[in-house]
């Protein structure tokens, strides 16, 4: 048992790891927004990136909640795949309805592929780290 596990206890240690993984997923969604804004020259200020990212961050949080991803935050199927689908679906819906943005099919395809790569890739890496431990 590590020093951290002894001092925090296994349950608290697990909760901290889960929170870190949720925050890492959120950071990956923000990275997706930064990359999109950069490639379309739509601005890289905090407000520009936040304007692009917030619908997808809401989708991410709902995806985590509906799949109860905190129980197994590194699981690819079904949690990871469902989180990606909810992130994209709700993100696109909020973008169109509230963020005054469009959702052409090409953007939906690129967003789905990019977020799947980022969010499922994170799960794959973190699940490998857990197995080695």
UniProtKB/TrEMBL annotation:
InterPro entries membership: DUF3054
Keyword Transmembrane helix among UniProt keywords: yes
Transmembrane helix recorded as keyword: yes
Name of a matching Pfam family: DUF3054
Superkingdom per UniProt: Bacteria
Transmembrane segments: 16-37, 49-67, 79-98, 104-125
Keywords on record: Membrane, Transmembrane, Transmembrane helix
Protein name: DUF3054 domain-containing protein
Organism for this UniProt entry: Nesterenkonia massiliensis
């Amino acid at each position: 048992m590590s020093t951290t596990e002894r001092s925090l206890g296994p349950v608290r240690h697990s909760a901290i790891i889960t929170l870190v993984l949720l925050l890492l997923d959120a950071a990956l969604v923000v990275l997706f927004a930064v990359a999109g804004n950069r490639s379309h020259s739509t601005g890289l200020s905090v407000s520009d990136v936040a304007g692009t990212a917030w619908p997808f961050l809401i989708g991410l949080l709902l995806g985590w909640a509906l799949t109860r991803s905190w129980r197994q935050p590194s699981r690819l199927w079904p949690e990871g795949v469902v989180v990606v689908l909810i992130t994209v679906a709700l993100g696109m819906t909020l973008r169109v309805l509230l963020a005054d943005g469009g959702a052409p099919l090409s953007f939906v395809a690129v967003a789905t592929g990019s977020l799947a790569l980022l969010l499922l890739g994170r799960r794959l890496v973190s699940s490998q780290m857990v197995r080695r431990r």
